[in-house]
Each structure stands twice: as structure tokens, then as C-alpha cells.
Amino acid sequence: MPRFLPELPHKHGTPATTAVVLVNLGTPDAPDAPSLKRYLRQFLSDPRVVEIPRPIWWLILHGIILNIRPKKSAAKYASVWMPEGSPLRVHTERQAKLLAGYLGEQGHHLTVTWAMRYGSPSMPEVLARLKANGATRILIVPMYPQYAASTTATVVDEACRWLLQTRNQPEMRFIRNFHDDPGYVAALEKTVRQHWQSHGQLTANDRLIISFHGLPKRSLDLGDPYFCECQKTGRLLAERLNLQPEQYKICFQSRFGKAEWLQPYTAPTLHALGKEGIGRVDIICPGFVADCLETLEEIAQEGRDDFLAAGGKEYHYIPALNEDNRWLHALTHIVERHLAGWPSKAAIDPKAQETTAGLAMKLGAHA
User: What residues does Fe(2+) bind to (predicted)?
Assistant: First the structure.
């Protein structure tokens, strides 16, 4: 097997071009068991995602998990599937299109596309296509505000594996995190305040839950900064909302297995609040910039059922940023900072481009 991927003949004088790739976690191709099995096999085989000795984990994964979990997960995906496909895929694609429009309005002449770390379109597939189309500078944007080895680092790993197979390599940059970016936090604040305009401000007997995806506690002990970055995002958001410490709580969801994970856990917290007589819970998930199974099924559906069954009266999930206008502006500024030094601006014929406002209306972006 050749060590390097095949290359197109090099042509001297070919213009250098720049590309931006938004990368999210991934999604099955369809809400059915075979698709889930393929997706989970790839996802759960990543040694950064599951740090259990490989021989032991192989037996657990192939002997138990892949024989039980796909059918259960498929039913959950089916409950949130959109007409256009998986919510994560739909929102990520829309974000890429809108980002291209905003960058174009700032005078940038570049390609903006998207990929999934697990599933399709795969990162190697997207990177190879960009390179074949002349991209010599590629900015990778992991869509995880808070850095973790099991998320952001796996994106870097996959890109570097592709580079190892590439003879004529493009320049490549990565965005590490944006957990405390003022524009990102302001966009979160806006979504909460818009929600409060419709449902009323929190009272003394109400709570805002700020829920992040969980990780094994061992990751924190080994030096992963994720827990601390989640805490900072939550604190900054609470400060912008002028909340008192007793009015909000930072929690961690999606625990898997019997090992201790980052605490407090979201589901038991919701149950306890219902038991304590808390009347209303609003919940937001800042670690997800696009709605997906973990927000729409686990939080919006299961979380509501847990809270109401425990005695709570009113429960609201505040949607992810998705195509929010302020969020897309923030993402544009984040990307521009990381493009610094790469020539990407050129004269653009405005008649040849659809206006961002028009595109946003088509995609249902929030004003």
C-alpha cells in the first residue's frame, strides 16, 4: 500500500487559496440500528474518547455495547430527526453557509465548508476535496467552545493523520477553544434574555441550570482543562445575566458507565430540585453550539420528565445557538482572528453573491 495519497500534478503559479472547515462531533446517517452501529463503532473506538485498555474495551464494545445500544439509540434519534436529516448535521451545514456569507461581507474570498469527526462527511474526505480544489491554507474550527482531549484533540488527531498521508501538505491551523470569547458569551446571554421575554424572569423559587456534556472525573485529574473552562463559561454567563449564586447551577450530563464523572450530574440535580419544591427550571447547554441528540432528547425531553415527575411545575429548554445572528457574528470574528496573516481578501462582485440577510431568512436564522 502506498505511503502517500495520490497527488494531482503540481502546476507552478497556481494561486494559493484559503479554506475554513467547521468540524462537529458527528451523527449517524439515519435513525436506524445499522447506521447507529456504524457510527458508534467509529466513535467509541477512538482511544481519546474511551481511555480503557484496548483489549478490555474491545470486548466490552463488540461483545455488549454494539449489540444492545444501537437499537435504543436509534429510537432516541428518531424522536428528534428533522425532515432534512440529523439536527446536528442540519444546523452545522446552515452555520457554514451563513459563516461564508458573513466572511464574504467582510471582504474575504475563501471557501467555507463543514465536516464531521465521526460519520459523514468525514474530515479526510473534506480535506482531500479542498486540496484538490486548490486550497493551500486550511483553518480547522472544532465547534466545541470548551477544549477537551476527547473532542477538540480528536479533531487535531484526525487532521494530522491525513497530513501524514499527504505529500504536498497545505498549511493548517486549529482553533483550540472559545469558551470565554465575549461574542460567544453575549450570544448565550441573548438567547436566555429572549427566552425570558416570552416566559418571564426567574423568581426566587426558579433556577437556571447550565448543563455541559460530562467527562470522566479522571480526565480532570489527568490535566484536562475542560471542567475549568465549563466553569468559566457558566460564571461569565451568570454574571452577564446578573444572577445571584443561588439562582443558577452548573451541571454535567450524559454520564456513561459506572465510573465517577464530573459533578454535579444534571439528571439527579433536576430530580432534587423538583423534590425541593423549585417551581420552574430553565436549562441551557452552552457546550453545544448546535442542537443534537444530547440537547433535544436528553435535556429537552428526559430532563423535563425527570423534573416534573419529582414535583416540579414548569420546565423550559433554551435552544442551542444554532443559526442565531449574534452567534454567527461572534463566530465570524473568531475565525477572522485566526486567519490573521493569511491573505484571504479580494474584490468581490456583490451581484454574484446572495446577501447574508437573504440567506439567513431562508435558513430561519434568528435576527
Answer: 213, 294
Rounded to the nearest 5°, which phi and psi values hold at 265? -80, 145
**What is the length of the chain?**
367
CATH topology of domain 182-318: Rossmann fold (3.40.50)
276 is in an annotated binding site: no
For residue 51 the three cell numbers come to: 481511555
CATH topology classification for 17-178+325-363: Rossmann fold (3.40.50)
Number of alpha carbons in the 13 Å side-chain half-sphere of residue 221:
6
Domain map of the chain by residue range?
17-178+325-363, 182-318
Q: What does the pLDDT look like over 281-291, one tens digit per residue?
A: 999 999 999 99
Distant-in-sequence, close-in-space partners of 117: CB < 8 Å, separation ≥ 6: 23, 24, 25, 26, 123, 154, 155, 158
- Is the bond leading into 9 cis (omega within 30 degrees of zero)? no
213 is in an annotated binding site: yes
pLDDT digits (tens, 9 = 90+) for 144-165: 999 999 999 999 999 999 999 9
